[in-house]
Write a structure and sequence with these properties.
Blueprint: H1 2-5, H2 8-18, E1 20-25, E2 31-38, E3 50-56, E4 71-74, E5 77-86, E6 91-101
Antiparallel strand pairs: 1-2, 1-4, 2-3, 3-6, 4-5, 5-6
């Protein structure tokens, strides 16, 4: 029963309600617009310029396998993925470090 509460459908609803459109650039140079949650509620932004973004890992939504070195552009700022944690609901948490502002 616990697993039913956290499968892909409820998590995707979270993306619909709380997500923002971000530009996602894979290390191979492919750029995709996806919906991601900038997760500041868990203290994701720290003194070192780190943040956590949550997004769906689904080919239909644009990303299948996030990896270190990918880049996210959110609110005019570039973030580089330094760590990826997948879950069983088809979502990924990406720990990112802030880069240079994007014009």
């Amino acid at each position: 029963m616990f697993g039913d509460l956290f499968d892909a459908a409820p998590m995707r609803k979270l993306l619909d309600v709380h997500g923002d459109t971000v530009s996602y650039k894979a290390v191979d140079g492919t750029v995709t617009s996806v919906t991601a949650i900038y997760n500041e509620l868990v203290g994701a932004l720290d003194d070192f310029g780190n943040a956590i973004f949550t997004l769906a890992t689904d080919a239909a939504l644009g990303i299948t396998a996030p990896e270190r070195g990918d880049e996210i552009t959110f609110a005019g700022e570039q973030w580089t993925v330094v760590d990826v944690r997948d879950d069983e609901a088809g979502m990924a948490e990406l720990r990112c470090i802030r880069g240079q502002a994007v014009s």
